[in-house]
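A reminder from the course coordinator: this example appears on the midterm review sheet, so study it carefully.

Given structure:
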């Protein structure tokens, strides 16, 4: 009986994985279509290679205006912003640097977006790219193309991490690039979502949806943006062209803390979805040993099916995210992806308090943030 139940569970996991892979394989990038846009890069702190990333624009016919911003005049990112702005201006690109005071808002990126949306024309798209995103060869016009549909409010690109050197870097890349949580696969299962690493919104649609006001105390601003657009009658669309992110030198603790924050937001905003992590995303960790313990044809079949599906997801995720890796590193990616899933889930369930950008915060109902006063 136990073996049969495990086998049924494994069949659901394998079928879901197969559907995600098949749907992604059928997706083709949209026909590139230029659109006037304001490309903004909210920044915080010095990062290796920041000036080079900011000064590099993607190949595009959209001729974007560019904006860099920080939250304070003493931010360590400012020298890199000035260098990048000078290089872009010399190439004839319209570029602006702004210091945007977020006040007491914990989410400084969201607070900066409020100011940038005010500068965007109704006929423009507002494109937001995180500071660690590399746009060197990203097809920006493919990202913007769906926005020509007046019913589309936002598009986004699935992030894939490259250039990691530490065990933490490898674990993060495995979670985002070689697991079912890889956004290029996950988007086929949850098409109504939005990932904020690189996204574009139609300025007019975002204004109709209420803009970015009030997102400064929301950790998962991307999920709230998607929700606001849906309420206003718009849909969101992934472009499926992966964008490179280049975070490096992270510890395992920092990585699990980061994804723990993600899952804590899901716990606050979409609590029912949290069940998918033990039942689907991290199911191999449970199904393989439990199937082996149950034994018999059903138990061993469950273990084998779960492991086979997990390996197939890792291979497909690498391919669709254009992440390099041979057979020698495949076991590492499978193990690391599973480990991060469970470690992050444990953090999210243990406490609603998170450490983020040097502040201790508590995630309340709806994903709203409150500053936690530390005891002296």
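Designed residues:
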């Amino acid at each position: 009986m136990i073996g049969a139940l495990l086998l049924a569970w494994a069949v659901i996991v394998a079928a879901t994985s197969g559907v995600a892979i098949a749907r992604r394989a059928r997706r083709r990038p949209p026909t590139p279509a230029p659109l006037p846009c304001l490309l903004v890069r909210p920044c915080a702190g010095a990062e290796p290679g920041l000036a080079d990333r900011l000064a590099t624009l993607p190949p595009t016919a959209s001729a974007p205006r560019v904006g860099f911003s920080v939250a304070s005049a003493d931010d360590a990112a400012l020298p890199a912003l000035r260098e990048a702005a000078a290089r872009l201006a010399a190439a004839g690109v319209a570029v602006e640097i702004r210091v945007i005071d977020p006040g007491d808002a914990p989410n400084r990126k969201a607070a900066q977006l409020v100011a940038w949306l005010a500068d965007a024309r109704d006929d423009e798209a507002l494109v937001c790219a995180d500071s660690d995103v590399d746009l060197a060869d990203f097809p920006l016009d493919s990202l913007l193309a769906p926005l020509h549909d007046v019913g589309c409010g936002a598009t986004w690109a699935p992030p894939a991490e490259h250039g990691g050197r530490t065990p933490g870097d490898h674990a993060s890349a495995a979670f985002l690039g070689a697991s079912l949580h890889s956004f290029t696969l996950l988007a086929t299962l949850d098409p109504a979502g939005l990932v904020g690493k690189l996204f574009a919104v139609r300025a007019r649609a975002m204004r109709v949806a209420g803009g970015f006001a009030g997102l400064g105390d929301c950790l998962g601003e991307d999920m709230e943006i998607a929700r606001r657009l849906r309420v206003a009658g718009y849909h969101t669309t992934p472009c499926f062209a992966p964008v490179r992110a280049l975070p490096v030198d992270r510890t395992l603790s920092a990585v699990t803390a980061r994804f723990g924050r993600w899952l804590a937001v899901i716990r606050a905003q979409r609590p029912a979805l949290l069940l998918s992590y033990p039942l689907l995303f991290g199911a191999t960790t449970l199904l393989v040993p439990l199937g082996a313990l149950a034994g018999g044809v059903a138990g061993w079949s469950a273990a084998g099916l779960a492991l086979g599906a997990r390996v197939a997801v890792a291979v497909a995720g690498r391919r669709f995210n254009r992440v390099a890796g041979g057979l020698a590193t495949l076991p590492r990616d499978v193990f690391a992806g599973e480990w991060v899933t469970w470690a992050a889930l444990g953090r999210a369930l243990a406490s609603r308090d998170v450490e983020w950008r040097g502040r201790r915060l508590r995630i309340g109902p709806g994903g709203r943030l409150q500053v936690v006063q530390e005891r002296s």
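The longest strand covers residues 37-42. The chain has two domains: 2-23+259-362, 32-166+190-249.
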